[in-house]
Specification:
By secondary structure, this protein is mainly beta. It has three helices and 30 strands.
Length: about 475
């Protein structure tokens, strides 16, 4: 999954019939826990959720228990956003996990003892009763009861800095309207904001994006890059409110997301595609290159009436990226040529382009790794040469750039001290146990190294290997 870093910002619920709804759901409960001497103590703090896999150990739980109000089966995307209660310098990280949906132990937990109601199995959260906690470990959770989601990472974090974690799979698995997340396994003490933090903008929340009520699944996908020969627009119509009734659509296409400035064609019943041509779209049916086009499909249901669609877009670009082949990987050794201390090899690249938007350039570069730096001769041409004087595993990247798009390919060159050394470097296979001098052949030279120095050496202190000691 992908982790994004953002700053405190509340999302906006999108309005309008047929539009994909983006709903912000604040956390209902949160609480930190602490191990060892505090394992049975509720460590509620109305400001911070502590995380630390050292000292006594701290893990923090965040609960959303009103998700039954939403049809999560229609989710398209879902993210959890948490914020730092206070800044933290240096390189930091923290794991984010979820309590599995079938784990119901202490699922009604609350963040403070004054909210407890044992008669209804409502208890304040502690280290020992936290759902899914591995009480014997300061950072980890019970793998059978929790699911790891992602790791938050940052450097020199500041107060109010937010982190967005994708949690769609967790919400789609929910069956009871209650979802619990855990912040845990940070090497250093981190403090995130609670659900009741005095600064409302720092309180954790879920962002839920649902499928639109109207037209859906656009082809091309929203934001896609296409060429100007794109033949049609397609989509999925909504199910009619009354089964069997027809769905009619108005399809708009233009260079601005404004229906009044777009061409419109009416289609139906139950049509879910339209050709891009000047008959359907007089002003925009002939696509121009390097233009962002917008389109929208408004649907008509016999019961619901107009269901406005959401705007989608695509960008036209007839330019194809260059094609690049850096050549086959090579295995060479010092002294392979005339110079016993060097070896020169050719980087045989092949590139091509469609000529758009103009001439393209090529460049060989050396990747940074443990190998020594070398000079690439004719680095701005497909075919270049490199002279090596040290053993190592070298990597070179050939990049072709047409001014609009780039393509790269990488080749590896293994340089050994000898053919034997280069062979083992390339295969990774160990030397034969009897190949004492590691020259790739087991012979008398290895026999000398292994046995000659200790030939006829005797370790029998009683008879000297058959010769009786004098009395």
């Amino acid at each position: 999954m992908r982790t994004l870093t953002v700053f405190a910002l509340m999302a906006v619920v999108l309005g309008g019939s047929g539009r994909a709804a983006e709903v912000v759901v604040p956390a209902d409960m949160s609480c930190r826990t602490e191990g060892f001497g505090y394992a049975d103590t509720n460590r509620h703090d109305s400001s911070k959720l502590s995380v630390r896999a050292s000292s006594n150990g701290n893990k923090s739980w965040i609960k959303f228990d009103q998700l039954g109000d939403y049809d999560l089966s229609k989710l398209r995307a879902a993210t959890l956003t948490v914020f730092l209660h206070e800044g933290k310098s240096g390189s930091q990280q923290c794991d984010v996990s979820a309590v599995n949906d079938d784990v119901t132990e202490n699922i009604k937990w609350v963040d403070h003892p004054n909210q407890e109601n044992p008669a209804e199995e409502i208890y304040a959260l502690t280290w020992n009763n936290a759902p899914g906690n591995l009480t014997s470990d300061m950072g980890l959770l019970d793998a059978a009861k929790t699911t790891y989601i992602d790791t938050i990472t940052f450097t020199d974090g500041v107060e109010g800095q937010g982190f967005e974690v994708e949690v769609l799979d967790i919400l789609l698995a929910d069956t009871d309207g209650i979802v619990q997340f855990v912040l845990h396994n940070s090497p250093n003490l981190l403090n995130f904001a609670t659900h009741d933090n005095p600064t409302e903008a720092k309180q954790p929340y879920l962002t839920l994006r649902f499928a639109p009520e109207g037209a859906d699944h656009p082809v091309p996908e929203d934001g896609a890059e296409v060429d100007t020969t794109l033949a049609q627009l397609a989509w999925t119509n909504p199910e009619p409110n009354t089964p069997g009734e027809p769905i009619y659509c108005d399809v708009y296409l233009g260079a601005d997301p404004n229906r009044l400035l777009m061409d419109k064609v009416e289609v139906g019943p139950d049509v879910s595609g339209v050709a891009i041509n000047t008959d359907n779209f007089p002003n925009f049916g002939l696509l121009a290159n390097k233009v962002t086009y917008y389109w929208v499909v408004d649907c008509y249901d016999t019961d619901k009436g107009l269901i406005k669609g959401e705007f989608w877009s695509f960008y036209t670009n007839d330019n194809l990226p260059p094609e690049v082949d850096a050549g086959a990987d090579q295995v060479v050794w010092l002294g392979m040529g005339e110079d016993p201390n060097q070896v020169t090899t050719t980087l045989s690249g092949v590139t091509s382009d469609d000529g758009l938007p103009g001439p393209y350039t090529v460049l060989w570069t050396q990747e940074v790794n443990d190998a020594p730096a070398v000079v690439i001769v004719n680095a701005d041409q497909d075919v270049a040469t490199v002279t090596f004087s040290e053993r190592g595993v070298y990597e070179f990247t050939l990049t072709a750039d047409d001014g609009d798009k780039q393509t790269s390919d990488t080749v590896q060159v293994i340089v050994g001290d000898s053919p034997c050394d280069a062979s083992h470097m390339s295969t990774g296979e160990p030397y034969h146990p009897a190949d004492a001098n590691q020259d790739c052949i087991v012979d008398l030279a290895d026999f000398v190294l292994l046995l000659a120095e200790d030939w006829l050496a005797c370790t029998d202190t009683l008879t000297q290997c058959g010769m009786l000691l004098p009395m």
